[in-house]
Amino acid sequence: MRRLIAIVFVICLLLIVASFGGALHGIGDSLAVFRYLIAMGVAVTAALLQRRRGLRIAGVVLVAAGIWLMPEAARLVASDPLPETSYALYQKNLLYYGDQRRELVADILAVDADFVTLQELYSRNTVVFERLQSHYQTHQICGSQKAPGEVVFSKWPAVPGQVVCDGRIGVAGLQVETPHGRVWVLSLHLRWPYPYRQPEQVKALLPVLKGLEGPIIIAGDFNMVPWSYSVRAIERASGSKRAGAMVRTLVHASGLLQVPIDHVLVPGGQGALQVRPLFGSDHLGVLLGFEL
Fold first, then answer.
1. Which end of the chain has fewer CB atoms within 10 angstroms, the N or the C?
2. What does the alpha-carbon distance between residue 42 and residue 48 come to, in Å, rounded to a whole number?
């Protein structure tokens, strides 16, 4: 039994190392999603390999407590009231077959965010677009009429001719004129990591971001955890950083899958984040207050 535990310990260590290899191969980021759980496996097996019974028991109890407390701690931090800030952005993956659209629109209008970024704006969700369009003077939508996909709304006027739209990458955006100067606002929807298309999307996205002049805000469903290569590479290319508390935004109906994959990147990486209800989606909304 001790030999078996030692083998599991070594495998977990190797998986941890491989999870940092996203720049070399997409499987690295796929493993990074589970890095926290793999680390727990390392801790448990290390505790079991200890010859002192007290150390073994203490190690297992601490790991179990960490697994149990982490989701609740993140939820409490992220639900704090937002402080007064100059700007606010509401991010939401609508879910292509989602419902409760009336309630979602009411929530967006109630918080009166300066910017709104949406994903999966397919035919069943176009009512959301129609209702928000009358409230926001500026928007950029990308994709076909039946499946536009990504959209950005802004209170501030657009800079003529400064837009981004690429359905293959899953990005829509525009540059707007704010009281603090011009800023790009992008709505991003990456696919699932390897073996799906996310590595190819990120590879195509990075030169687009590097070619934009001026500050960049990126919000969306990254389908990837914040400590991954993909998110870090996007931060470097855009000159922005993820802001706010880490929140498990993807909430599967079973409750078994909860992952932090919806992010808002802003210049400087400073801001206060608040979670918003599901409203028929499997993604929590996030509202970020920040400064430019």
1. N
2. 10
> Is residue 290 a contact partner of residue 243, using CB atoms and an 8 Å limit?
yes
The third-level CATH classification (topology) of the domain covering 82-290 is Deoxyribonuclease I; Chain A (3.60.10)
What's the whole-model pTM score?
0.86
SS3 285: strand
- Do residues 190 and 230 touch, judged by C-beta distance below 8 A? yes
> What is d(CA 129, CA 207) in angstroms, rounded to the nearest whole number?
29
Show pLDDT as tens, one digit a residue, over the chain (292 residues).
Answer: 788 988 888 898 899 899 999 999 989 999 988 887 788 788 788 877 777 665 666 566 666 656 554 554 445 445 567 778 889 999 999 987 777 888 999 999 999 999 999 999 887 778 888 899 889 989 998 865 555 689 999 999 999 999 999 988 999 999 999 999 999 999 999 999 999 999 999 999 999 999 999 999 999 999 999 999 999 999 999 999 999 888 888 876 555 567 889 999 999 999 999 999 888 898 999 999 999 9
Sketch the domain layout of the chain as residue ranges. 2-76, 82-290
Helix 53-78 / helix 35-49 crossing angle, nearest 10 deg: 160
Q: Give me Rg for the CA atoms of the chain.
A: 21
Give the contacts of 200 (CB within 8 A, at least 6 positions apart): none
